[in-house]
Amino acid sequence: MLRIFYNSLLVLALLPALYAQSDSSLLTNVTQAFSQAQVVPDVLPSFAPTALANITFPVSTTNQAVNVTAGALLTEPQTANEPAFSLISSSTDQVANQTFVLALVDPDAPTPQNTSLSQFLHFLGGDFRVNASTDDPTRLVNQSAALMDYFPPTPPEGSPPHRYVLVVYSQPNDFADTARSFVNASTPRNHFNLTTFATSVKLSNPMAGNFFFVGPKNSTASTTTAASATPGASTATAPAATDTTDASDGAPTTTNGGHTNTCAVVGMAGGLAIITLVMVRELCNF
Ligand SMILES: *[C@@H]1O[C@H](CO)[C@@H](O)[C@H](O)[C@H]1NC(C)=O
Ligand SMILES: *[C@@H]1O[C@H](CO)[C@@H](O)[C@H](O)[C@H]1NC(C)=O
Ligand SMILES: *[C@@H]1O[C@H](CO)[C@@H](O)[C@H](O)[C@H]1NC(C)=O
Ligand SMILES: *[C@@H]1O[C@H](CO)[C@@H](O)[C@H](O)[C@H]1NC(C)=O
Ligand SMILES: *[C@@H]1O[C@H](CO)[C@@H](O)[C@H](O)[C@H]1NC(C)=O
Ligand SMILES: *[C@@H]1O[C@H](CO)[C@@H](O)[C@H](O)[C@H]1NC(C)=O
Ligand SMILES: *[C@@H]1O[C@H](CO)[C@@H](O)[C@H](O)[C@H]1NC(C)=O
Ligand SMILES: *[C@@H]1O[C@H](CO)[C@@H](O)[C@H](O)[C@H]1NC(C)=O
Ligand SMILES: *[C@@H]1O[C@H](CO)[C@@H](O)[C@H](O)[C@H]1NC(C)=O
Ligand SMILES: *[C@@H]1O[C@H](CO)[C@@H](O)[C@H](O)[C@H]1NC(C)=O
């Protein structure tokens, strides 16, 4: 009787350690992936996460749900809808009763070789919390509207895959007031600088992060091809340095130039040149 009791105690004592070990191995992997894909230094000067940030793209008519592992290569259809975010920490104090700021940026716009429009801000929101008394105690739920709503990846034709980088920060008390003077309805998505923003609104070092790649839609591939190609891709991992090599996996760069020109022509043809250009940029470039 006593022996069983002590054995149970031993198992109970070991459990947190086992979880902590797998978490720390995952943290190491994410940290390494950030360096290998040059997310450090391209997006962040340094990255030493203390929690895991998971991204799950929802089930849609053509796709099953996708859980992102750092550096996974995904498709446009898989990433078309706003994902769910979760925060996994081995320390309750680190997440309980805390609020978080989430940013998702593309440092490769319009292409990894020509980043003149980067960063492109795909999502920015504050007041995210986890709730221990729900079914999924790691799920991050927003308590206020996003500063910049989710915009799905649309890298231009001919571009190698872009990196899409999620960064999670602990939220300062005055964030809601200060952030709006830097990102609001009139702020363009391109030419965003996460480091500058973070400094301006006094965000401290990121506590978690994750990233994935998305390549352009294949102009020759039909939508049915894209859809049937997706299930296997949920576990696919991109070669870490894809984005830094030259356009080896891309179509000729002239295709990209033609695409951009088409967008510009459409924009100029519109009566409301400025508004149209902004909208067309959003639709065409990334
Ligand atoms: C971390 O990455 C290594 C090498 O890619 C892999 O073998 C290992 O399973 C990963 N660890 C976890 C916890 O996913
Ligand atoms: C994604 O993760 C969730 C929670 O960890 C799990 O329930 C689900 O089965 C996973 N989905 C896929 C497609 O791996
Ligand atoms: C978070 O993502 C990692 C890597 O894909 C996965 O191994 C882990 O099970 C996920 N955790 C949760 C709680 O979904
Ligand atoms: C979170 O806040 C609630 C209500 O204020 C409190 O009861 C609880 O102890 C807090 N939890 C932690 C881990 O601080
Ligand atoms: C870089 O991209 C911008 C925006 O699409 C474009 O105007 C510019 O010509 C490109 N520069 C080069 C060197 O291709
Ligand atoms: C957490 O979820 C429970 C159950 O849905 C809800 O009653 C409670 O108000 C939530 N707490 C917070 C801080 O959002
Ligand atoms: C959370 O974000 C969603 C999607 O942007 C939005 O519709 C919802 O209103 C937000 N929740 C709150 C409480 O503001
Ligand atoms: C909105 O953001 C822009 C920067 O994109 C800033 O110049 C402007 O002052 C902000 N507007 C307000 C009302 O804070
Ligand atoms: C963002 O701004 C910082 C200085 O505030 C600069 O060092 C960095 O190169 C900029 N990042 C990008 C991607 O332009
Ligand atoms: C694009 O189409 C070519 C030719 O059909 C094919 O080899 C390639 O795998 C496709 N790429 C993607 C991302 O669908």
UniProtKB/TrEMBL annotation:
Keywords: Signal
Biased composition (Low complexity): 223-255
Pfam families: PBP
Name this protein carries in UniProt: RNA recognition motif containing protein
Annotated spans, Disordered: 223-259
Record's signal peptide: 1-20
Species classification: Eukaryota, Fungi, Dikarya, Basidiomycota, Agaricomycotina
Metal-binding keyword on record: no
CDD domains attached to this UniProt entry: PEBP_euk
